[in-house]
Design a protein that fits this description.
The protein is extended. It folds into 2 domains: 28-110, Immunoglobulin-like, CATH 2.60.40; 122-183, no CATH class. The termini are far apart. The relative contact order is 0.14. It is 23% helix and 31% strand. By secondary structure, the chain is of the alpha+beta class. A hairpin with a 6-residue loop joins strand 4 (75-78) and strand 5. It has a 3-stranded antiparallel sheet, with no helix packed on it.
Length: 184
């Protein structure tokens, strides 16, 4: 039978080990994410195709679809270049002014601490590919003008606003159809 002192020492060590194990677990957060949007200004009687991204599980998050709905049937598909999953909806003849879609996800995200120096290097070809402009991510025109407004002192190869244009910030208004873009 163990004496009182060694028993206290063993219990203290056990408590310490459990505390360390709990502390070493990656931090996580759990939430429900509702991704909903509306497609407006459709051309009545014409074909309509809609793609939107699908959240994916990886080593740093677990994603589960709780529900999905849309005014058109949703199909899950995969984009061939990078393998990203997405939802696709289509009709041969649009018959509504607006189409509504929603996907509700159950998500658990885990803390991700990365040692950047331990990562393998990226080839020059891969780096060049990811640093190029993309037709879906414009880097000239109006987006460049808006970026120049946010930090006129930043070095850029893009168009800069003149001081008169920068002073007259009322030249821009919020576009209600696309809330993340400004139009002049």
């Amino acid at each position: 039978m163990l004496s009182a002192v060694p028993r206290k020492v063993l219990l203290s060590i056990l408590f310490l080990l459990l505390s360390i194990a709990t502390y070493c677990q990656p931090k996580s957060r759990h939430f429900v994410f509702d991704y909903s949007f509306t497609v407006r200004n459709t051309d009545p009687g014409k074909p309509l195709q809609i793609w939107f991204p699908m959240a994916a599980s990886d080593p740093f998050q677990q994603v589960r679809i709780i529900s999905k709905s849309g005014d058109l049937p949703l199909q899950q598909t995969r984009e061939p270049e990078f393998g990203n999953q997405m939802f696709y909806a289509h009709t041969d003849k649009a018959d509504k002014a607006e189409y509504h879609f929603s996907v509700k996800y159950d998500v658990v995200r885990y803390e991700h601490l990365a040692d950047v120096a331990a990562q393998g290097s990226v080839s020059k070809k891969e780096l060049a590919r990811f640093l190029q402009p993309d037709k879906l991510v414009p880097v000239t025109g109006r987006p460049a003008e808006i970026a120049a407004l946010s930090d006129p002192s930043a070095p850029s190869r893009h168009y800069r606003m003149t001081s008169a244009e920068t002073a007259d910030r009322n030249v821009f208004r919020k576009n209600t159809d696309h809330p993340c873009f400004l139009i002049g």
